[in-house]
Amino acid sequence: MSEINAPYASCIPEIDTVVQKLCQTESLSKVWREASSGSSMPSLHVLKEIMERLRAIIFPGYFGSSVSSRSVRYHLAANLDSVYHLLREQIARGLAFADAFPADLAKQKREADAASLALLDRLPEIRDLLAEDAQAGYEGDPAATSPGETIFCYPSMYAMFHHRIAHELYELKIPLIPRIISEMSHSRTGIDIHPGATIGKNFFIDHGTGVVIGETTIVGDSCRLYQGVTLGAVSFPKNPDGTLTKGNPRHPVLGNHVTVYAGATILGRIFIGDNAVIGGNVWVIHDIPAGAHIVQGRSDA
Fold first, then answer.
1. In this predicted structure, what is the pLDDT of residue 210?
2. 251 in Cβ contact with 233 (< 8 Å)
């Protein structure tokens, strides 16, 4: 990168000195991403609008404008059309960020178009999963008065809505965008779910603050977590050059109907059997058999 010569000079000498230092190659080259044709960064504002429109599509009447049985088709079609056009542009920017198709903008746009349509095609299945999550929240929390309350109010539902969209984009191998979507939810709820995590149906996180679910985690059906649970990695294998190995399975696998209570930490590629119960503040780094109850100082395996 050549030395930068800014045409603007501040009238305050001290500021101009700082500008010159910040424009030096050894400083700027470490952090600068030069804009070029077709390579703008994804827009957080636009992605937020996309997610708001998708939430109105998945849960009509709860979010967005009021709808009736006579207007719902128009409401859905209008939102889907907007989402399609907005999303394909953002996906194209994500592909450009990752340099997925160098110097081939036409292919980049085709891939973005196909991925956008593929996500929209999955929305009925995503809605079904989220409806089951809402029912699980209602059935699992005595304080919930209806599934609708969990849809509108519960951080678990907000987190799972974002995760189920982000996970589909992750499965489509779209760079950057899934992680941005997951961080939208993380910043609001304190629930940190990597978009790569695979989560079954009827899933509920009670309270939720401080939950961490790693990239290669697999969670079965009808599982329930409480606040402060970590499903993480116990170690990080390295390549011969010292860099971390990416993408290898390193997070837990939970079977069906597993309950994990507040503050529990489950680490590594271990297997938690069906119907197991992991008590609060327990540290687990070994496989747990089906039906076991693990609590501090005692194991009913």
1. 98
2. yes
Mean pLDDT of 47-73: 94
What are the structural domains of the chain?
1-32 (no CATH), 36-191 (1.10.3130.10), 210-301 (2.160.10.10)
Place of tokens 């967005």: 64
Cβ–Cβ contacts within 10 Å for residue 163, how many? Answer: 26
Q: Which residues pair with residue 231 across a beta bridge?
A: 213, 266
With a cut of 70, say whether residue 49 has pLDDT above it: yes
For the stretch 252-269, pLDDT in tens is 999 999 999 999 999 999
How far is 249 from 269, CA to CA, in rounded Å? 6
Mean pLDDT value across residues 82-93 = 97
What sections of the chain are H helices per DSSP?
Answer: 13-22, 25-28, 44-58, 72-97, 105-140, 147-153, 155-171, 177-189
User: Alpha-carbon distance 96 to 262, whole Å?
Assistant: 41
Q: Across the strands, what pairs with 218? A: 198, 253
Q: 295 by DSSP, 3-state: which?
A: strand
| List of residues 6+ apart from 151 with CB closer than 8 A | 59, 62, 130, 134, 157
pLDDT at 279 over 80: yes
> pLDDT tens digits for 131-165?
999 999 999 999 999 999 999 999 999 999 999 99
Rounded distance between C-alpha atoms, residue 298 and residue 301, angstroms: 9
In sequence order, the 6+-apart residues with CB closer than 8 A to the CB of 123 are: 54, 57, 58
